[in-house]
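Postdoc handover notes: sequence design on the structure in folder B. Input tokens:
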């Protein structure tokens, strides 16, 4: 069995959690700092005093390399192990990295810093370390384990994931042969739930009810694409409120024979933006198109603090229905609708412009005949296209040429899958790490084809 490698700030709970998790799962446990003390015959403060931080880090790296070949062990690492990529490379050889995410303010309130050289300055040093290292913890983590409440809850969550049996998952739709879902989900499952399977199943609209009964017995979960995202609703036993508000789900977990539905498309899109440093709070979003995904993004944005929403569509009633649904979950939301003939007017106040139409998609003959409306955008506006084939549509090319940050639909596709896998696995994933793995897989598949 692969090791479970715990990373995080000094005082985040790695050692306490690690010991308990190892005991409950029948694994060995080691604290790398304790091993370092044992190997050198010196205390950590003495090493810092004699060799300085660089000398201490050299010895820490040697210990990381020495445990690289171990198996079935829970390893608690020092807080600074992430400062050297070679440490991560060694620990990842036979380990899954779990970031114990405890806020700096909780550490300051609850941890005795005596005997911790890097925390000798007290609260100021803790906050500085958090600012310096949080990005690295999140970048390297395969799993992120919040430690913000009762520690027993964090331990239970980690044990539940570690002892989870391989999952049987699928994606259904009509058509389904073109789906990238297996290539997007399988890399994450291979790392975090080895032995799991993910397949494509062709389910026609009239076959959904019979498929559901089979799924209750034979699957642990499934994703849905067209035409099933709304049709599945009356067949579910449970649905989260956000998906109910949208009127569609794309992810179903089978738990004790019950079908539990949620939606990850909206979260996937906005997570992709957040990973690029784009926050949606208090922003004006303009959506081009009135299909199902437009509804999803509008409602999700409203739930997460956008200031204003404009929907541009061919049919005024459909555009109005979307803005009304978004306003129903955020009554203070400012809303407008425009026909495509007034698209430039719609763009003038946009912070984020989203193409949710199929115009420009590979295999679709129709494309934008005139992109001059992009000139009306404010200079800071971010321009997004939900299309990922081609990777850069004419719409995005024109926006990029005008100096706007751009994003295509691939990142949304990746992150909605990662959020779905979180729903199946019951833990928060290291989203940056998983997205990187999936991109590598897709690139490799592209080279083979």
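Designed sequence:
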């Amino acid at each position: 069995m692969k090791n479970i490698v715990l990373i995080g700030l000094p005082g985040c709970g790695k050692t306490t959690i690690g010991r308990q998790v190892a005991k409950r799962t029948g694994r060995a446990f080691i604290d790398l700092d304790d091993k370092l003390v044992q190997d050198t015959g010196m205390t950590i403060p003495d090493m810092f005093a004699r060799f300085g931080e660089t000398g201490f880090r050299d010895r820490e790296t040697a210990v990381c390399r020495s445990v690289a070949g171990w198996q079935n062990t829970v390893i608690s690492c020092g807080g600074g192990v992430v400062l050297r990529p070679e440490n991560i490379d060694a620990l990842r050889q036979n380990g899954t990295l779990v970031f114990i995410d405890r806020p700096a303010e909780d550490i300051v309130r609850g941890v005795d810093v005596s005997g911790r050289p890097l925390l000798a300055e007290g609260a100021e040093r803790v906050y500085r370390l958090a600012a310096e290292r949080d990005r690295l913890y999140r970048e390297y983590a395969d799993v992120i384990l919040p430690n913000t409440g009762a520690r027993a809850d964090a331990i239970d969550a980690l044990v539940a994931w570690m002892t989870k049996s391989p999952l049987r998952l699928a994606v259904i739709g009509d058509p389904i042969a073109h789906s990238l879902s297996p290539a997007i989900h399988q890399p994450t499952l291979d790392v975090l739930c080895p032995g799991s399977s993910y397949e494509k199943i062709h389910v026609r609209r009239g076959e959904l009810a019979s498929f559901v009964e089979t799924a209750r017995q034979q699957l642990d979960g499934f994703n849905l694409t067209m035409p099933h995202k709304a049709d599945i609703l009356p067949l579910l036993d449970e649905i989260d409120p956000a998906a109910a508000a949208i009127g569609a789900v794309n992810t179903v977990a089978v738990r004790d024979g019950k079908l539990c539905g949620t939606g990850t498309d909206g979260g996937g899109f906005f997570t992709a933006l957040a990973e690029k440093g784009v926050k949606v709070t208090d922003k004006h979003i303009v959506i081009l198109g009135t299909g199902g995904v437009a509804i999803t993004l509008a409602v999700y944005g409203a739930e997460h603090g956008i200031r204003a929403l404009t929907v541009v569509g061919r049919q005024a009633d459909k555009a109005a229905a979307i803005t009304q649904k978004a306003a129903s979950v955020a009554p203070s939301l400012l809303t407008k609708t425009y026909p495509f003939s007034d698209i430039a007017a719609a763009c003038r106040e946009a912070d984020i412009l989203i193409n949710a139409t199929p115009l420009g998609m590979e295999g679709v003959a129709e494309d934008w005949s005139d992109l001059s409306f992009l000139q009306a955008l404010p200079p800071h506006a971010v321009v997004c296209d939900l299309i990922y084939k081609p990777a850069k549509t004419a719409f995005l090319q024109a926006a990029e040429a005008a100096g706007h940050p751009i994003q295509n639909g691939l990142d949304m596709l990746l992150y909605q899958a990662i959020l779905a896998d979180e729903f199946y696995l019951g833990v928060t994933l290291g989203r940056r790490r998983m997205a990187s793995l999936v991109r590598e897989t897709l690139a490799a598949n592209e080279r083979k084809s």
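Context for whoever picks this up: The chain has three domains: 3-162, 168-266+413-448, 279-404. Don't rerun without checking with the PI first.
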